[in-house]
Design brief:
With 213 residues, this protein is of the alpha+beta class. The chain has helices spanning 22-30, 32-38, 46-51, 67-71, 135-150, 165-173, 202-207; strands at 5-8, 12-16, 58-66, 104-113, 121-126, 155-161, 177-188, 191-201. The chain starts with a strand and ends in a 6-residue tail after the last helix. The relative contact order is 0.16.
Amino acid sequence: MPGARIESGDRVTLRTLEREDIPFLQRGFANPELRYPIGNQRHKNRTELESQFEEEDRVRFLVCLEGDALAGSGLEGGADDREGTGESKDGGRATPTDGDVTDVRPIGVVSVAGVDWHRPELAFWLAPEVQGRGYAKEAVSLVIDYIFRVYETPAVGAGAYAYNEASRGLLESLGFTEEGRLRKFRFIDGEHRDSVEYGLLRSEWAEGSDVGN
C-alpha cells in the first residue's frame, strides 16, 4: 500500500516512505549499478533500514510513477511490487490511502538530512531501469520547492562523488554551485574517491525556479 501523496509533478509523484517500502530499499542498496555511484559500500539489512525511520531531522520521499505516467513508462508492477517479483498482489493496482485510486510504482528515493539545521542536505537515487528519463530532475525539483516552502532555510546542499557525472550534471542543471571537494573522501570499488559539495541558495532558486520544469 503506498504512503500518502505529498507532491505531484508532470510525471512523478512524491509519497511518504513507509516501512512497507523496505524491500524496495533493500533491492536498491544491494544493486551494484546503484550502490557504487551513490557511494554505499554494502547492502543493508531490514534492521538497519528500519532504524533510519527514527531519525527525526530527516525527511524522505518515495518517488513514484502513477496512472498515465506509469502506463507510458513501459514498466510493470505496482505499489505492492515490493518483493522484486514484477507482479503486484493486486494486479498492479494500488490500494488508495488518501482518496486517489491509481496504479503506483516506486522508482526511487529523495531524502533531506538536517532539516532542522540552517542548511539541509539532499540525497537521491533512482532505480537503474528508469535512469536517464528525466525523472530524477523532476523529483529533486519538487523536493527543493517543498523544502524552501516548508522550512525557513536560506540554502540547501548536496554532494556527489566526482566520478558520478550523472548526479553532478543533474545538480548543476538545477542551479547548484560547486562549493568544494573532499579529497579521497571514501574508499569505493577499489579506489579512494573525491566527494564534490554543492549548494543552492533560496534566492537563486527563486530567480531560476523554472529551471527544473
